[in-house]
Specification:
Peptidase_S8/S53_dom_sf; 8-stranded mixed beta sheet; 15 helices; Rossmann fold; 19% strand; globular; alpha+beta; 2 domains
Length: 644
C-alpha cells in the first residue's frame, strides 16, 4: 500500500537491544513464500545485520472453523437468529488465540535466545511483538533480508523471498511481518518529492477513469433524456427505483473509506449540489481521522480529488439528509492500507501493540519528519452500518496467509452488523493496469494468459460490486448492460478462496449452463472457487472535475458503483431502524436466495474482456461480470423489512 521507508527501519537501529545468540532449529519448514517476485526493482544488497526490524508474529486464532457458521447465523434469512448480531466482546472471546498457542510461540522465541522481557503481547492477544536485529530475525526464521531499489526513482524497500518456522510451531502462527510481502508499484516523482505513499488509484488501484475523448461539459443535464451519455442522481433514482427519504439519520451510520492523499474539495461538492441537490450546498462529511488522515487541499486535481469527490457526491445525493462519515486513512507521509482502517474499527484486530507490516501498512506513530506522531488508531470507531470502499489491489500481490487473515476480519465485521462493500476492479478479468499472470502466477506485462482477480473483493465475506452502463441509445427503462466503455467490470474467480455455501447454487448453475470457453491455465475452473462480483450498479457517472476550475467531466469505474449500492443499503437500514429493527449487516446470503432474485435487474449483455480474451459474458442469473444484477430498491426494501 505504501513505499517502505528504510529511514524508518534504520531509525530503530539506534535502540539499545542486546543481540543474544539464537540457536538455529533443525526442524524448520517453509511457512510463506513471496506472492510475486519484484518487478522493476533491482536487488541491491543484503540488509545490514545490525539493522532492527519490528517483528510481528500473527498468532493462529481459535475457533476459525466457526467463522462462516457464526456469520450465517446472523445473516441468512432462514436463520432463526437473523439480525441478532454479536457484540465485540463475544467476537474477541470466541476467536482469541488459545493460551497454549501463546505459550508455545513464546517458548519457541525464548528457547531461541530472545529474552522474555523483550516480548509484548497485543491487547487482542493476536500478535506477539519483538524488535529484533536482522541477524536475529534471519537466524530465527531462516530468511535472508535484501534491499531492493527502483532504478528510475531511487525508492527502496526490503523483503525476504521466504521464511520458515519449526514444524511444531507452524500450526500456531498465521504469518510473520515484515517478511515476504512486497510493494510492487512505484510512486510518481511528485509523490516521492512529498514523501507520501503511492496514491490509491495506482497501487490500491481502483479509481475513476476520465473518458479520454471527452472535453468538459458545457451544460448539465436536467432530465432523463441523456442518461445513456451522462448519468445523474435522477438517472440513478429512475434506474434503481430509489424513492425514499431517510428518517433515522440520528442513529444510522454510513462510512466512505478514503486513503490520503486522495481527498475531497468542499467547492467541488457544493458545485455538484448546486446543480443536482441544492438543499445540500455546504454539506460536508464528518471527518474521522485514522492514523493522521487529513482532507488535504494542497494537492488538487482529478488524481487527488476525483475519487473522494465522486464517492461523497453520490452518497450524499442519494441518502439526503443522512450524515456521512469520511474514514480518511493515513497521513501524508506514510499513508495507509486496508489493515489500518480495520485496526480503527475493530480493537480485536488492532495492531497498536504490533502487527502491521511496514511493506504493506502505515506504521504509527510515524517517525518521519512531518508525519503523524500520535498513537496508532486502535478501535477508535464503532464500525458504521455500511462501509463503501472504492479501492483494491491484485489478489496475486499478497500472500494467501495475509489475505485469509484480513478476510476473517471482514467476517467479524459482518457478525457485528456491518455491510462491507468493495469495488470489483476496472480491468475485466485482468489485474490493475491490464496486467495478467504467467503460468507461474507471476505478473506478465506481455503474453500473460492467466486471469488476475482483485482483492479484497474476492474475500467471500465482503460484498463485491461490479459496473453496468445504460447501453448507447437506450433509456432508463431499458435493461442495462455490463460496463464496456473505457473500463470493464472486474469479475471472475478467486485463486485463494473457496466458494461459500451461500453462492454455491448460483455459481454452479453458471458454470454448468454457461461454461466459460477457457482452460484451467486461464482461470480457476475448479468449480469450487469464490466467484465475484456479487451485484452491480452503474459505473458511468457524471462527476465534478476539480483540476480545471470546477468543471464537470464524464468518468467511469466500479469506484462509481460501490457508493451507489452503499447508499441503497443505507436507506434500507434507515427503514429497518425506523421499524425498530437493526441493520442488515452482511447481505450476501440474502441476495443469493430465490426470494430475493425478483428484487434485482438481471444483466444479460456485455462482457469483461482482458488477458487477450473476451472475458466472461453476462447472462441469465448470476455471472462473473455483474453478479446477481442491479438492485431495485422498491422491491428490495420490503424484503429486508420483512426479516426480523
Amino acid at each position: 500500500m505504501r513505499l517502505f521507508s528504510l529511514t524508518w527501519a534504520f531509525a530503530l537501529a539506534t535502540l539499545a537491544i542486546a543481540a543474544p545468540s539464537i540457536t538455529r532449529r533443525s526442524n524448520l519448514v517453509v511457512h510463506e513464500k513471496r506472492a510475486q517476485e519484484p518487478r522493476d526493482w533491482v536487488l541491491t544488497r543484503r540488509l545490514e545485520p545490525s539493522a532492527v526490524l519490528p517483528m510481528r508474529f500473527g498468532l493462529t486464532q481459535s475457533n476459525l472453523h466457526k467463522v462462516e457458521e457464526m456469520l450465517m447465523s446472523v445473516s441468512h434469512p432462514s436463520s432463526p437468529t437473523y439480525g441478532q448480531h454479536f457484540t465485540a466482546k463475544e467476537i474477541v472471546d470466541t476467536f482469541a488465540p488459545s493460551t497454549d498457542t501463546i505459550e508455545r510461540v513464546v517458548e519457541w522465541l525464548t528457547d531461541s535466545g530472545i529474552d522474555r522481557s523483550r516480548l509484548k503481547l497485543s491487547k487482542s492477544k493476536g500478535w506477539i511483538e519483538v524488535d529484533a536485529t536482522v541477524e536475529e530475525a534471519e537466524t530465527l526464521i531462516n530468511a535472508e533480508y535484501h534491499v531492493y531499489t527502483h532504478p528510475e526513482t531511487g525508492a527502496q524497500q526490503i523483503g525476504c523471498h521466504s521464511y520458515s518456522v519449526p514444524e511444531d510451531i507452524r500450526e500456531h502462527i498465521d504469518l510473520i511481518k515484515p517478511t515476504v510481502h512486497f510493494l510492487h508499484r512505484v510512486p510518481t516523482p511528485n509523490q516521492l518529492r512529498k514523501r507520501s505513499f503511492e496514491r490509491p488509484s495506482t497501487h490500491i488501484k481502483q479509481g475513476p477513469k476520465l473518458k479520454a475523448d471527452t472535453s468538459p461539459l458545457a451544460t448539465v443535464p436536467q432530465d432523463l433524456s441523456t442518461c445513456d451519455e451522462e448519468i445523474t442522481l435522477d438517472c440513478l433514482r429512475a434506474l434503481y427505483s430509489i424513492d425514499y427519504t431517510p428518517v433515522s439519520t440520528d442513529t444510522n451510520t454510513f462510512g466512505i473509506l478514503e486513503f490520503t492523499p486522495q481527498a475531497f474539495l468542499q467547492s467541488d461538492l457544493d458545485m455538484f449540489f448546486a446543480n443536482f441537490s441544492p438543499s445540500q450546498v455546504g454539506t460536508a462529511p464528518i471527518l474521522i481521522s485514522i492514523d493522521g488522515g487529513v482532507d488535504q487541499t494542497d494537492d488538487t486535481g482529478f488524481d487527488f480529488n476525483g475519487e473522494s469527490d465522486l464517492d461523497l457526491q453520490y452518497a450524499f445525493g442519494l441518502t439526503n439528509p443522512q450524515p456521512i462519515l469520511l474514514l480518511q486513512t493515513g497521513d501524508l507521509v506514510e499513508g495507509a492500507s486496508f489493515d489500518n482502517w480495520l485496526d480503527a474499527v475493530d480493537a480485536s484486530f488492532c495492531t497498536f501493540e504490533g502487527g502491521d507490516d511496514p511493506t504493506q501498512d502505515g506504521i504509527y506513530p510515524d517517525p518521519l519528519p512531518g508525519g503523524f506522531n500520535g498513537p496508532a488508531s486502535c478501535g477508535i470507531l464503532t464500525p458504521p452500518f455500511v462501509t463503501s470502499t472504492s479501492y483494491g489491489q491484485d489478489e496475486a500481490s499478497v500472500t494467501a496467509a495475509y489475505a485469509q487473515r484480513q478476510c476473517t476480519e471482514y467476517a467479524k465485521l459482518g457478525m457485528l452488523g456491518t455491510t462491507v462493500l468493495y469495488s470489483s476492479g476496472d480491468d475485466g478479468v485482468a489485474g490493475g493496469g491490464g496486467v495478467c499472470l504467467d503460468g507461474n502466477g507471476q505478473p506478465a506485462r506481455r503474453g500473460g494468459v492467466q486471469f488476475n482477480p482483485d482483492f479484497p473483493v474476492t474475500c467471500p465475506f465482503v460484498t463485491g460490486v461490479g459496473a453496468t452502463q445504460i447501453n448507447p441509445g437506450s433509456t432508463v427503462n431499458d435493461p442495462e448492460g455490463a460496463c464496456e466503455q473505457v473500463i470493464f467490470s472486474g469479475g471472475g474467480f478467486s485463486n485463494f478462496f473457496e466458494m461459500p455455501d451461500y453462492q454455491a447454487t448460483a455459481v454452479t448453475s453458471f458454470l454448468t449452463n454457461h461454461p466459460p470457453p477457457f482452460t484451467g491455465e486461464q482461470f480457476n475452473n475448479s468449480g469450487v472457487a469464490r466467484g465475484f462480483p456479487d451485484l452491480s450498479a452503474n459505473g458511468l457517472v457524471h462527476v465534478l472535475r476539480c483540476s480545471v476550475a470546477g468543471e464537470f467531466e464524464l468518468v467511469f469505474g466500479t469506484s462509481c458503483s460501490s457508493p451507489v449500492v452503499g447508499s441503497m443499503i443505507t436507506l434500507i437500514n434507515d427503514a429497518r431502524i425506523a421499524a425498530g429493527k437493526g441493520p442488515v449487516g452482511f447481505i450476501n446470503p440474502a441476495i443469493y436466495t430465490d426470494e430475493f432474485q425478483a428484487a434485482f435487474n438481471d444483466i444479460t449483455t456485455g462482457g469483461n474482456q482482458g488477458c487477450g480474451t473476451p472475458g466472461f459474458t453476462a447472462t441469465e442469473g448470476w455471472d462473473p461480470v455483474t453478479g446477481v444484477g442491479t438492485p431495485n430498491l422498491s422491491k428490495l426494501m420490503p424484503l429486508f423489512l420483512a426479516l426480523p
